[in-house]
Prior knowledge:
Elements: H1 9-27, E1 30-35, H2 43-48, H3 56-61, E2 68-75, H4 76-80, E3 84-85, E4 90-91, H5 92-105, E5 109-118, H6 123-134, E6 138-143, H7 152-155, E7 173-177, H8 185-198, E8 203-208, H9 221-229, E9 237-239, H10 241-247, E10 252-254, H11 255-272, H12 280-283, H13 295-320, H14 325-336, H15 347-357, E11 361-365, E12 371-375, H16 382-395, H17 406-419, H18 429-439, H19 444-451, E13 460-463, H20 469-478, E14 481-484
Parallel strand pairs: 1-7, 1-8, 2-5, 2-7, 5-6, 13-14
Antiparallel strand pairs: 3-4, 9-10, 11-12, 11-13
Amino acid sequence: MPHRIGFDRERYIEMQSEHINARRAEIGGKLYLEMGGKLFDDMHASRVLPGFTPDNKIAMLERLKDDLEIIVCLNAKDLERQKVRADLGIPYEEDTLRLIDVFRERGFLVEHVVMTQLTDDNPIAHAFMDRLQRLGLKVYRHRVIPGYPTDIRRIVSPDGFGVNDYVETTRDLVVVTAPGPGSGKLATCLSQVYHEYQRGGKAGYAKFETFPIWNLPLEHPVNLAYEAATADLDDINVIDPFHLAAYGRQVTSYNRDVEVFPLLRALLETLAGESPYQSPTDMGVNMAGHCISDDEVCRDAARQEIVRRYYKALVEERREDLDDIVSSRIGMVMSKARTTTEDRRVVAPALAVAEETGEPGSAVELADGTIITGKTSELLGCSAAMLLNALKHLAGIDPELHLLSPESIEPIQTLKTEHLGSRNPRLHTDEVLIALSVSAARSEESRRALAALKDLRGSEAHTTTILGSVDEDIFRNLGVLVTSEPEYWRKSLYRKR
């Protein structure tokens, strides 16, 4: 049974590409399009809008590929802070290279990287710029501008945007993207608009931000899920007051866009003589709200995402010994969405296993609604047991059958404890999958179980103990949406990640 669909992917690709082309025509010159969120692998959108694929946005841009090029921004201060992309676990500099590779594999023109907020005393940023140049990329320096973004007279002058390098683009549609938030996309767009006008050209700015969805109500669960996702930034959704004043219509925006809009409008007026926009919403080109095919499916998916974000915050606070600031914010969002942890169907069964056995437990909900549990044993951790049990169910294998015999597990345990220094003899999910792959050479049941791995994608899971990084990676790669209780199985001060 497939997972329910609530979003029309093909309609989105068609509508969105047409709308961007329409905005280009309105601007009448080069359009710098700021792309908020993830351009290639938007996992959040795919979770809250079932049917929206992680590559939906880049698939849409492929319709415009011959007319556009891509600029990648990177904040020099993020390199100093060794910022990591949380969903992939890789530093921003490596994600920059990954994104460029992905874009080029898709046939996009991308050869420019802008290092924003660059200072002379940042050796890490300068070293990475040298590396980019050795790789054949063109690198541009954007400096810290005193008084940005409030001192408009200085910003729009030779001492402001004028000190930034001008990116020599060749196409009329320029997409500006980045590994993560705060990378300087907006400032890069405006700096380019300034330089275009200085050179006698005409240029404009627009923003492509999927969330919050402007034509969904303020407290629609899909918009609230975005609030939960940005709780660490203390962002909140708000009614766009400029749009209300200009058109008499209530639409949804968020606090940062509303706060910066007066300055942005003044900047555009100074740069171009007038601003084409009366509100933050006017700047956007997002058509996602028009492509929801089943509102209730999206509402349910968004509520689940909010609960997942809540558990994620709890675990992070426990790992880092942080105050409960982020989880409390998400708890407020949960209240607005009228959802609780009890609405996550895998939580109660996992807790019940732990209560019954006195050991960590886990549970997974498959696409057909079946809930499969896993318990801790002498041979297997609860996540590994749950994985095997789920594969047996999906492959139609007798649940009493041992896919892995104790005889095949024991040598792996010996290797772990006697030669690799592990204190825990139980097999983790990666070890179970390797053992299952070996077993598949001589076992039809193991082959069937392995073939069923693809059917786990989109499943929901919960464990009663904080997962290690290996198990997290396995579930992420399998497409299983897993949460955990903010508890460690063993009490110790040092935790290996």
